[in-house]
Design brief:
It is a single chain. By secondary structure, the protein is of the alpha/beta class. The chain folds into three domains: 14-327, ABC transporter type 1, transmembrane domain (ABC transporter transmembrane region fold), CATH 1.20.1560; 340-424 and 504-591, Rossmann fold (3-Layer(aba) Sandwich), CATH 3.40.50; 433-502, P-loop containing nucleotide triphosphate hydrolases (Rossmann fold, 3-Layer(aba) Sandwich). It has 19 helices and ten strands. The strands form two sheets. A six-stranded mixed β-sheet has the order 6-7-8-3-9-10, with helices on both faces. A four-stranded antiparallel β-sheet has the order 2-1-4-5, covered by helices on one side. Helix 17 (518-531) links the parallel strand 7 (506-510) and strand 8 (536-540). Helix 3 runs antiparallel to helix 5 and helix 7 packs parallel to helix 10 (286-327). The longest helix has 53 residues, at 228-280. The protein is elongated, with a radius of gyration of 35 Å.
Length: 591
């Protein structure tokens, strides 16, 4: 497996992975008990049929009339009907159990992923998680369903069939089972190799899924850059690699199943030869021989099933271990054992000499960065890559931070519950995410119970209400995946309306109006000035015109706040601020 950092345990841990199934087995114990009871009854009835055949054949040998044959035939038909009914019920109970296991593990995966933070998810692609919830979980379901049934059935049928065979003739039974040790040795030898190859198969499937997801999510970009053929070639190469690793696993599988069949047929040959001689010597009756052959046929299925079951279990355990690996991930952000009470507004945020490096990187993005955000609007400018977005993510508690580095009204944030602090913040990220849903649902994402009036008020504040009404279904218009049916400016304003609807004491906007025209921008800024009264607002922008009404302006360079003051003060003493202001002023005049 690939190294994904300290929060991602890796390696084969079968015992811990199996605990996932043990929990489900305990939860549905009654279902398993009834299902296995029905399965055992089916096997017993199947094993009883050869005894009926034995008596019928022996009856024919001793000159019994047709009435006896009719009675024995009726018994077989009755047993077959009962077997059919019981087989239906064990399938409903046991295969239904596997579907319940699949549902529960999938729900556990979704619930767990939602608890993870960005540090914990670092190194995991979306395709990897989709593969776990799709292909891997299907392997677990198959192992917990048909795999478990076939294993229990094979073991029970083998023991019972051998007992019935031994009751007929112990020596012949010993001859029949002589080839079985070869099957056991081969299965044990190939299991480890199967595990390694199945791990490779599942990892390749994850890469293939991620490539497909990326292609669909960025289809317009591929077309704009004429990269259709190149992406097709990448997908084809991944597909070929996936098939190659599947074929390598199939080579091992292809050894197990045919060899199991060979062992079963070898036993049949031995019984035909030695059993036939016993009949000719009159050591056993013809009925005993027929019953023995029937039992051997019932035993042939378990012999062949062991190879198939080994394959299913190896796939299932490999996938279950990968799922357990995900469920073992732990978020870096942990709530204190006794969270402190949430501070009351107005709120002052302070970051003190914070140095931050993203997981897997060597160069820090923030370098002893200190900032104080007091009630009112604070504007922040800085060159690309200076750490502005990283600062926003730390203030929003998306990454862990050392004790004493970040305080809210003097309270260390590490003494507060993570959700408690986030409940104070409305955050508009640089890449605002929209969902394939209605406009109303997207605006009300953070407050699902919001009324129509609240949604409309938030849309008015971001100057998009009239544009929404002009759409085909108004606020019930579905905007497609990631808001594909909207312009960039419309997407940004809906994301901003979502934040304003929350009406929280802290508002952080990370370059959230970059795609909005100047006239609309001024309307929104006037609403923000009114909205920001009594609140702590941080607005990041590359356009100084958006920040002129801010109570305080900050300049960030190379991961630090290097200057602070009013617009006039920064024009006089900060070269970067003056340069960007002059450039934007000339551009505006040129228009």
């Amino acid at each position: 497996m690939k190294d994904r950092g300290p929060n991602h345990p890796q390696g084969w841990d079968g015992k811990n992975a199996l605990r996932l199934l043990k929990l489900s087995a305990g939860r549905y114990a009654w279902r398993l008990a009834v299902g296995f009871l029905c399965l055992a009854l089916v096997d017993i009835l199947q094993l009883w049929i050869p005894r009926v055949m034995k008596h019928a054949v022996d009856g024919v040998s001793t000159g019994a009339d047709t009435a006896l044959l009719a009675a024995r035939s009726a018994q077989i038909v009755g047993l077959a009907l009962l077997i059919a009914v019981l087989r239906y019920f064990w399938r409903w109970f046991l295969l239904g159990f596997s579907r319940l296991v699949e549902r529960d593990i999938r729900q556990d995966m979704v619930n767990h992923v939602l608890t993870l933070d960005r540090t914990a998810l670092h190194g995991r692609t979306t395709g990897d998680i989709l593969a776990l919830s799709g292909n891997d979980l299907a392997s677990v379901q198959l192992a917990a369903g048909m795999g478990l049934v076939a294993f229990v059935d094979a073991v029970f049928m083998s023991v019972a069939a051998l007992a019935f065979m031994a009751a007929l003739d112990g020596a012949l039974t010993a001859i029949a089972v002589a080839p079985l040790p070869f099957l056991a040795v081969l299965t044990r030898t190939l299991s480890a190799r199967l595990h390694r190859r199945f791990v490779q198969v599942q990892e390749k499937f994850s890469e293939l899924t991620e490539c497909a997801r990326t292609t669909l999510a960025s289809i317009r970009l591929f077309k704009a850059y004429n990269q259709e053929e190149a992406q097709t070639a990448r997908f084809d190469a991944l597909g070929r690699s996936y098939v190659h690793h599947n074929l390598r696993a199939a080579m091992v599988q292809g050894t197990l199943f045919p060899f199991a069949g060979l062992v079963g047929n070898a036993s049949v040959v031995l019984v035909l030869y030695f059993g036939g001689r016993l009949v000719m010597e009159k050591t056993i009756s013809p009925g005993d021989f027929v019953a023995f052959i029937a039992y051997l046929h019932l035993l042939t299925w378990p012999m062949m099933a062991f190879g198939w079951v080994a394959n299913l279990f190896q796939r299932g355990l490999t996938s279950l271990n990968r799922i357990h690996d995900l469920l073992s991930d732990r978020p870096s952000l942990q709530d204190p054992s006794r969270p402190a009470p949430v501070p009351s507004p107005p709120l002052t945020l302070r970051l003190h000499e914070c140095t931050f490096t993203y997981p897997g990187m060597e160069r820090p993005v923030l370098r002893r960065c200190s900032i104080a955000l007091e009630p009112g609007i604070t504007g922040l400018v800085g060159p690309t890559g200076s750490g502005k977005s990283t600062l926003c993510q730390l203030l929003t508690r998306l990454y862990p931070i050392p004790d004493g580095t970040y305080t809210v009204n003097g309270m260390d944030v590490n003494r507060l519950g993570v959700a408690d602090l986030r409940s104070l913040i409305a955050y508009v990220p640089q890449d605002g995410v929209l969902f394939s849903d209605t406009i109303a649902a997207n605006i009300a994402f953070g407050k699902p119970d919001a009324g129509e009036a609240e949604i409309v008020a938030a849309a008015r504040a971001t100057a998009i209400h009239e544009e929404i009404l002009a759409m085909e279904n108004g606020y019930e218009t579905r905007i497609g995946e990631k808001g594909v049916r909207l312009s960039g400016g419309q997407r940004q304003r809906i994301a901003l309306a979502r934040a304003l609807l929350l009406d929280r004491p802290i508002l952080i906007i990370d370059d959230g109006l970059s795609a909005v025209d100047t006239e609309t921008e001024q309307i929104i800024l006037s609403h923000l000035a009114e909205y920001g009264r009594g609140k702590t607002c941080l607005i990041i922008s590359h356009r100084i015109a958006q920040l002129l009404d801010a109570h305080r302006l900050l300049v960030m360079e190379d991961g630090r706040i290097v200057d602070a003051g009013s617009h006039r003060e920064l024009l006089e003493r900060n070269a970067f601020y003056r340069t960007i202001h002059e450039h934007q002023t000339r551009t505006l005049c040129a228009r």
